DNA sequence: GGAAGCATGTAAAGTGTTACATGATTTT
DNA sequence: AAAATCATGTAACACTTTACATGCTTCC
């Protein structure tokens, strides 16, 4: 791999017309942050690095007295982005979910406390679902007018994931209610 | 938060009877690694740190000429673990999914190449699903005999997630096939 | 006039991964 | 006899986050 995923994130944003470091960070916060987040302290050095390697070109573009530097892809950067998108290399996948870790160790707790823990996890999934439907999805929909559909696809996958997770946990919550006997879900009336 | 999640991972494993650094790393590789991974270079220093803080006590426990150090929780460690499990603090949730990032930028590609990318993502989800069902789930089931059920619950959530993701992507794959017109899924005969 | 937003960066601290180093025991 | 597994650790590197530092412009 020539570049790290965080670098392709920047190439992709530049390709989509998001031209400054500040704007890239803001765009990420409103879109990809759920599966790939970033920070100013990552974006600015990476822009400098990508320019040094010839993947992008920056141009000073001050707005009044306020300095600004706007970047665009070079041919080399454009090529690198497409190559990455078509690569068959296994994409990195890192998942750190403290909630699931707690669930994993829930045998330590009393049935009541374990049930409460599952309930909290379900609530958190519902809250994430709400954020996606109220904030992320509507924003992604605005891209459709310019024929940009995949950010909406990604947002839908995220929203549907949290919905799915919330109902999976709600089901589990019902099964672990103290008083409910069965090891597997009670299907008896 | 008194301790970081990686520390609670170790406390939880010790509480479950997994007593050495080596065994903890192995156990994690077979169970929690999908939502919380670790490495020897994290486990050994963390064990030393937790012992220094009084959460655990280690005892030299050589096997023949092979040195070994076995740890157990102190009261303080036991208390810290339960407190963490009952905490209402928002659990850390970090997700880095390069596959979704590629999907997000797929408008750059031709419809054919975008469809191929979706197909690769679907295959990868299917492969992860297979690993869960063939390797992780059977292992987690062995815990049931000792009345340990939540590792299996967590493994089921993981397995079901990848199944769900694979079929979501299969559905998307059908929708983005070149030749299929509609913006939204074609419900025509 | 003050707050919020635009804009760019650096420094320090924390976290995590990979590679290395060593040696005993068990399995093939 | 060799390979795999058990077992413990360190060093170097890579990566991320948080906090800091600065100053302009726009909105209330």
Q: What oligomerization state is this entry in?
A: homodimer
Strand content of chain A: 5-15%
Query: Between the first and last Cα atoms of chain A, what is the distance in angstroms?
Result: 57 Å
Q: What's the CATH architecture of the largest domain in chain A?
A: Orthogonal Bundle
The count of domains of chain A is 2
The CATH topology label of the largest domain in chain A is Arc Repressor Mutant, subunit A
Give the C-level CATH assignment of the largest domain in chain A. Mainly Alpha
The chain-level mean pLDDT of chain A equals: 93
Count of beta strands of chain A: 3
Radius of gyration of chain A: 22 Å
In helices, the fraction of residues of chain A equals 55-70%
Largest sheet of chain A: 2 strands, antiparallel
- Please report the number of helical segments of chain A: 7
Residue runs with pLDDT of under 50 for 5 or more positions of chain A: 185-189
Give me the secondary-structure category of chain A.
Answer: mainly alpha
Shape of chain A: elongated
Widest sheet of chain A: strand order?
A: 1-2
CATH superfamily of the largest domain in chain A: Winged helix-like DNA-binding domain superfamily/Winged helix DNA-binding domain
Describe the model.
The structure is a homodimer. The first copy, chain A, is mainly alpha-helical and about 190 residues long. Chain A is built from 7 helices and 3 strands; from the N terminus they run αααββαβααα. Chain A has 2 domains: about 80 residues, Arc Repressor Mutant, subunit A, CATH 1.10.10.10; about 80 residues. The N and C termini of chain A lie far apart (about 55 Å). The C terminus of chain A is likely disordered. At the A-B interface, helix 1, helix 4, strand 3, helix 5 and helix 6 of A face helix 1, helix 4, strand 3, helix 5 and helix 6 of B. Chain A binds a DNA duplex (28 and 28 nucleotides) through helix 2 and helix 3.
């Amino acid at each position: 791999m020539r570049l790290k995923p965080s670098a392709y994130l920047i190439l992709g944003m530049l390709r989509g017309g998001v031209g400054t470091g500040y704007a890239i960070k803001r765009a990420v916060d409103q879109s990809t942050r759920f599966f790939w987040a970033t920070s100013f302290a990552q974006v600015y050095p990476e822009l400098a690095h990508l320019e040094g390697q010839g993947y992008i070109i920056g141009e000073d573009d001050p707005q009044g007295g306020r300095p600004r530097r706007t970047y665009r892809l070079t041919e080399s950067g454009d090529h690198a982005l497409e190559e990455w998108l078509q690569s068959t290399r296994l994409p990195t996948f890192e998942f750190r979910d403290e909630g699931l870790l707690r669930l994993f160790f829930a045998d330590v707790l009393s049935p009541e406390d374990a049930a409460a823990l599952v309930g909290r996890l379900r609530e958190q999934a519902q809250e994430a679902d709400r954020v996606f439907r109220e904030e992320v999805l509507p924003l992604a929909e605005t891209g459709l007018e310019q024929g940009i559909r995949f950010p909406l696809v990604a947002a839908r996958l995220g929203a549907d994931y949290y919905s799915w997770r919330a109902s999976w946990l709600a089901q589990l919550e019902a099964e672990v209610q103290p008083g409910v006997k069965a090891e597997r879900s009670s299907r008896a009336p």
